[in-house]
Amino acid sequence: MQIHTQKTVLTSPSSATGVSTLLTVFASVFLTLCAQASLLIYEGFDGYTAGADIKSNSAVSSTTVGLTGKYNSSSVQVTVKDAGLTFSNLLVSGGSLTHSSTTGTTIGVKLSGTTAYSGTLYSSYLVNFTSNVGNTPSSIVCIASSSDASTTSRSLASAADNGGSYSTIGVGYSGVGANATNGSLTLSSGTYMILARYTHVGETLSESTPGVATLWVLSADQFDHFKSTNFADIDSATTGLTATSVTGKVIETKTSGKSDLFTGNGTYLQAILNGNSAARAIDEIRFGTSFADVTPITGNIPEPATTTLIVTSLTLLAAIASRRFIRMR
User: Rounded to the nearest 5°, which phi and psi values hold at 35?
Assistant: First the structure.
């Protein structure tokens, strides 16, 4: 007589519990990654040809987020440096952009089709001054309707300067550039973070739903303080040089119209570098949906560009764990 035996799948309670626990952990990590991967635009000027004009590169670097195509600029060279700016423990990459010509220039690159957002938007970038630069904003980062200087349609603009009594910082919700300025601020040489927040982006503005653009200038010590509080007290901070104050602050409020440039296709990330003989560098441009998105620090969740790799690794680990705890008999 031939006896047939049938293989059965045996899953011990402890194994099932182990698998369930591991998958729960993996799911939690995945959701955390998704929640924190809300960085819409990132440009760290890494991956370009060092020493060359940025527009000589055939395309944006693979390290960017939310950008596509190549940079356009005027005939004035804007040089990519191999070394990037550093700022406390802010997460940075190699490379920065420098400009020291007496002739100003505007550079721009197209936003990808997926880069669209409405609500409260945040931005940040680093700027370094090596000497006084005069009485006009030496760097403006904004969203524009074209990549060159001819446009008068710009929004979400933040500007920094340093120098004498006519120095300005500025912020602009929509318009030609940085509309609201503070003409009494004097910045010494060094590196600063230009941090900004824009409310009701992409919405129709009114007295009850105003678009408010707020800009803060932070030193490294000030950044450390506000980062430790998740920026909970930055709105109430006074201007000054102490760690718990802000170096500079300016606000613009709009109660009509609509800031509709942050829509992806057809809009551009633009940087305006005004002409002056003093050297300045900009770096680490970010737009995101929270303060956390635009102020990542070393040791935190990586930039979205690396999220796919991490999620893939977690999936493989989950599969390995399942095979380890569930045996076929």
Answer: -65, -35
- Supply φ then ψ for residue 78, to 5 degrees: -115, 110
How would you class 271 by CB atoms within 10 Å of its CB: exposed for 0-12, middle for 13-18, buried for 19 or more? buried
Q: What are phi and psi of 56, to 5 degrees?
A: -75, -15
Residue 303 DSSP one-character state: P
Amino acid identity for residue 273 in this structure: L
Tell me the domain boundaries of the chain: 37-302
pLDDT digits (tens, 9 = 90+) for 25-61: 444 444 444 444 489 999 999 999 998 889 888 899 9
Instruction: Name the strands in the sheet holding 169-175, side by side, starting at the edge strand that comes first in the sequence.
Output: 67-73, 105-111, 268-273, 139-144, 154-160, 169-175, 180-182
Q: Cα–Cα distance between 60 and 73 in angstroms, integer?
A: 14
Q: What is the pLDDT of residues 298-320, one digit of tens each?
A: 865 445 444 444 445 555 555 55
129-144 b/e with 16+ CB inside 10 Å = b?
beebbbbbbbbbbbbb
State which CATH number among 2.60.120.200, 2.30.110.10, 3.30.70.100, 1.10.10.10 fits the domain covering 37-302: 2.60.120.200
